[in-house]
Specification:
The chain contains 14 helices and 13 strands. With about 350 residues, the chain is an alpha+beta fold. A five-stranded mixed β-sheet has the order 5-6-1-7-8. Bound molecules: thymidine-5'-triphosphate and magnesium ion.
């Protein structure tokens, strides 16, 4: 592997920046976005907040009630995930163009491998400025960007100077990492931080200097990985995930039929298969399409979309049957039915976490 140049792009106070963009009168105010906030009286949790709200000590994950105590004059807004997802899609489309390899990590962050595109240090800054400008021109949002020789450094660098930051760490990696808290290492949570502290390790420098055997004895494989990261070594690649666009199943009847029970039964079977594949692959979907072909080969499709990604079997069955309903009354016999789901999303850990904030 040659020398690499990796960018990590992370949007600034993403949900709340989108809300402020939609309502310019909120600019400069403490804005808190969270589930069911009821103007601060709700029982939900803070998803994120504006930097003005952060000055009052409000943070992601905090109960809305606590945020309200810290800053009663803040503007409390519910989560409008459909909007953020749409904006996220636009941003990812912009970013993708600038990368040899591109990997979206969550709704508001992505890695870009630009190794082949930039020759010199100055080029990197120019490229990042172009990216920032395009995001601003098109979406009126700011982001923070980290540049490093690997994903780990890039990720830490993007967080180093927020909001609207640009931190390039292509040289002097060890010096950059040395004073930082171990907590900055992705994957080091409260528990690991505490365990490290008990070993007398608080900074990344101390972690790098610690005997690797000790770390392995304490944390197993993670200890080995932590030691490498502390030394700035990360060989993981930017993985272009070619997302499956859609998946579906269809069935051609042995004999054309207009028997409602047979048709319902077919839908149940298809729903079952589709749902199993979704579960296996860890996907949920937002659009379901029913396909129906009559005995004379006349073919129709009907779709329904949902605001949030879904995957439960009953919903697939019911939606499939509802969509089929308008076709089968007093019409020709049916030759084939199919169910396809699209707008797929991977059910990753971070997303699960976010969803848990949204439904309380
Ligand atoms: P982050 O990038 O972690 O946070 P942020 O973009 O709001 O702020 P920063 O400027 O520090 O990057 O997360 C992106 C979005 O994910 C965030 O806007 C809201 C959502 N989110 C939650 O819903 N719950 C959480 O606990 C976190 C951390 C984020
Ligand atoms: Mg962010």
């Amino acid at each position: 592997m040659g020398k690499m140049t990796i960018l990590h792009v992370d949007m600034d106070s993403f949900f709340s920046s989108v809300e402020t963009r939609e309502r310019p009168e909120l600019r400069g105010l403490p804005v808190v976005v969270g589930a069911d906030p009821k103007e601060g009286k709700g029982r939900g949790v803070v998803s994120t907040c504006s930097y003005e709200a952060r000055e009052h000590g409000i943070r992601s994950g905090m109960p809305v009630s606590r945020a309200y105590k810290k800053c009663p004059e803040a503007v409390f807004l519910p989560v409008n995930m459909a909007l953020y997802r749409k904006v996220s899609g636009n941003i990812m489309e912009i970013l993708r163009k600038y990368a040899d390899k591109f990997q979206q990590i969550s709704v508001d962050e992505a890695f870009l491998d630009i190794s082949k595109r930039v020759e010199r240090y100055r080029d990197v800054r120019e490229l990042v400025q172009k990216i920032k400008e395009e995001i601003w021109d098109r979406e009126k949002l700011t982001c923070s960007v980290g540049v490093g020789p690997n994903k780990f450094i890039a990720k830490i660098a993007s967080d180093f100077d927020k909001p609207d930051g640009l931190t390039v760490v292509l040289e002097g990696v060890e010096g950059f990492l040395a004073p930082l808290s171990v907590r900055r290492i992705p994957g080091v949570g409260e528990k690991t931080e505490k365990a490290l502290k008990e070993m007398g390790i608080e900074t990344i420098c101390q972690l790098a200097e610690c005997d690797e055997q000790k770390l392995v004895a304490q944390f197993g494989k993670l200890g080995h990985r932590l030691h490498l990261l502390a030394k700035g070594i990360d060989e993981s690649e930017v993985i272009e995930i070619r997302e499956t666009k859609s998946l579906g199943r269809e069935i051609t009847f042995e004999e054309d039929t207009d028997d409602p029970d047979a048709l319902d039964h077919a839908i149940d079977g298809l729903a079952n298969e589709v749902q199993r594949v979704l579960t296996d692959k860890g996907y949920r979907f937002r659009t379901l399409t029913l396909k129906i072909r009559f005995e004379d080969f006349e073919t129709h499709t009907r779709s329904r979309s949902f605001d949030l990604p879904v995957s439960d079997l009953e919903l697939i069955e019911e939606t499939g049957k509802e969509l089929m309903q308008e076709f089968i009354e007093g019409r020709k016999k049916v030759r084939l039915v199919g169910i396809r789901v699209s707008n797929l999303e991977r059910l990753d850990e971070k997303q699960k976490l976010m969803e848990s904030y949204m439904t309380d």
